[in-house]
Write a structure and sequence with these properties.
The protein is α/β, with parallel strands linked by helices. The chain is 29% helix and 12% strand. The protein has one domain. It has a three-stranded antiparallel beta sheet with strand order 1-2-3. Helix 4 crosses helix 5. One of its GO terms (molecular function) is hydrolase activity.
Length: 266
């Protein structure tokens, strides 16, 4: 069942009609995500409703931790369903590039798409083992070369374009995804920070505000929070969340259902 939403605020620009001599116009800012309601609030999320801060994070961890774990090979077929191009059922939509590519071109060669770990494996030492290494909530299809360009870089604003970038940018130590998926990336990273708390043999993953921070951290938190506000969940992201919940893992990304919980926790 798709969640029913209360209309949310859009990002607004602070501007001034007249700029006085010696003064600059205010910078653009994003309005924090407005409160939402979903069909899952009285069932799946009932023990989280009304909480904030560490209490909310702990409640969500308990809620989303029970999940069916896939093998890394099973991820190939799952991504063909979760990331199917809504305009072409024979293709998947690549995360950073925005390219629609044939489902059959999955592999490791140039021109193929492979399995991108949005929370970089080296930022958690989890490899591709069942668990965080195969969690569909942060695994997405991406062009092999673009995936390599992203590597294990933290997420931040700035950089230069590259072949098949789709509008994404990169520099020596960070990666900025295209505008249409900035919020998606933020919500995937923050899902991982709540799902994996070090109590199930995997590291305690945490988002921080550093670039190239030490394991098990991923950044940059302040930028991810802004992206969550600027790029709210769309139909593709919501469908993906529902498919993972119903068909594969049995758990949800709470920040897709309630993007305002990002600010409530961090």
């Amino acid at each position: 069942m798709l969640a029913t939403r209360i209309p949310r605020w859009k990002a607004v620009a602070l501007a001034t009609a007249t700029v006085l001599v010696g003064l600059s116009a205010p910078a653009l800012t994003a309005t924090p995500a407005a409160a939402t309601t979903t069909a899952y609030d009285s069932t799946y999320y009932k023990n989280a409703i009304g909480k904030s801060g560490t209490s909310l994070k702990s409640a969500l961890h308990t809620i989303i931790s029970p999940q069916t774990k896939l093998s890394y090979s099973a991820v190939w077929e799952a991504l063909k369903v979760t990331d199917q191009d809504p305009n072409n059922s024979n293709n998947v939509k690549l995360l950073y590039s925005g390219i629609s590519r044939s489902k059959s071109l999955n592999g490791g060669d140039s021109g193929d798409w492979n399995r991108e770990h949005v929370w970089a494996q080296s930022h958690g030492d989890f490899g591709t083992s069942a668990g965080p290494g195969t969690d569909l909530h942060h695994l997405r299809p991406e062009d092999v070369t673009v995936n390599s360009i992203r590597g294990n870089k933290d997420f931040d604003n700035g950089g230069s374009s590259f072949t098949n970038s789709g509008g994404s940018l990169t520099d020596s130590n960070s990666f900025e995804p295209r505008d249409a998926v900035k919020g998606d990336v933020a919500r995937m990273i923050l899902y991982m920070a709540v799902r994996y708390e070090g109590d199930d043999s995997w590291p305690n993953l945490e988002a921080n505000d550093s670039i190239n921070g030490s394991v098990p951290y991923h950044g940059r938190l302040s930028v991810l929070k802004a992206w969550n506000d600027e790029d709210p969940p769309d139909a593709f992201e919501e469908r993906r969340n529902n498919v993972i919940y119903s068909n594969y893992q049995g758990n949800r990304n709470p920040f897709i259902d309630h993007p305002e919980w990002v600010e409530a926790i961090w």
